[in-house]
Amino acid sequence: MGRRIRVLAGLWALAEIAVFVLVASWIGVGATVLAALATTVLGWALMARQGTRALEALRERAVAHRPPGRAASNAGLGAVGGALMVLPGFVSDAVGLLCLLPPTRPLVRAAVGRGLAARLGLSAAGPVRVHSTRVPGAPSGATASRASASGAFGAPVRVIEGEVAGDVVDSGPRPS
């Protein structure tokens, strides 16, 4: 893992240098340095603005006792985007803008989500089809009175007989 990060950081640095040299040959060294400084200042301004908005959204959700949802991911993407904009280099500025701008933020969020899911070995499960079968002698929709069918604290539970058709992916604990 550490080797991959070092290789990616080296490739990123080479890309930044190559783009900087290309821009300098196109518009001149002085204008390139000024553009790099301007994007750094723009990064600080955007990070402050987006950070304030993200904190307000998180605060409103906390006051309303709602989960943070997209507000948390917006705050994280704003921080990463601002940090990338502050770093010198035009490649990091482009990636930072993708994280900061609201129209492109869902694209970045989806790409990061897919990357994390692949890294963690998660896959999207398709629909699960259940074919119901009747069991002779079992009343339909009745409350089970057997001890084996009792839930928490001995409360009776509904028993639904059925058969699962197709592959099932365990998605973790089931709601009670």
UniProtKB/TrEMBL annotation:
Gene Ontology cellular component list: membrane
InterPro entries in UniProt: FxsA (IPR007313)
Pfam family, one: FxsA
Protein name, per record: UPF0716 protein FxsA
Alphabetical keyword list: Membrane, Transmembrane, Transmembrane helix
Regions crossing the membrane: 7-27, 71-91
The keyword DNA-binding is assigned to this record: no
Signal peptide range in chain numbering: none
